[in-house]
Description:
globular
Amino acid sequence: MASAAWCCACGVGIISMLVIYGILQERIMSIPYGHDYFTVSVFLVLCNRVAAIVFAMIMIYIKGEPFRNIAPLWKYIAISFSNVAASTCQYDALKFVSFPVQMLGKSFKMMPVMCWGMAISRKRYPPSDWLVALVVTLGVSEFLISGSISSYRNESSSFIGLLYLVAFVAFDGFTSTFQEKLFEDHKTSKYNQM
């Protein structure tokens, strides 16, 4: 019973932090500061990554893991570039589409992850998995076209926001698939990959 309570507490904590993170994301990118909007989303990505590196280094030290690279450096670089590109596109999308649209857009990630899995890891998926991904994609698409998708900031260029979302989903799908491959092939820890 104690482990179930601990699991529930962790779940509530994770969901709460993600909600706060999402509210702050939308606030920073779509609400003006005086008469100006925040425009340099790469700076937010940099701040996020610096905090992640500091956290990872602390955890590596605490867990007694090696600080050296376990996988070849080029694999870390590929993941880093795709992760930074995905995060930048995610923030930039909020300039043009609303936060709920951005969250729904993440539901499109199923098919790109499956395609990257086939390309990178030579995975094969049964037709039922493709059908589920297709139904989710069609459902999200129907929801998106049924109402306004523009952000508070920019009501005329939501198409650009959708392009950013497509780029985000493609880069993020590559990032998660390639990270999974590193876990499998090189037995890296999550902190080593951070």
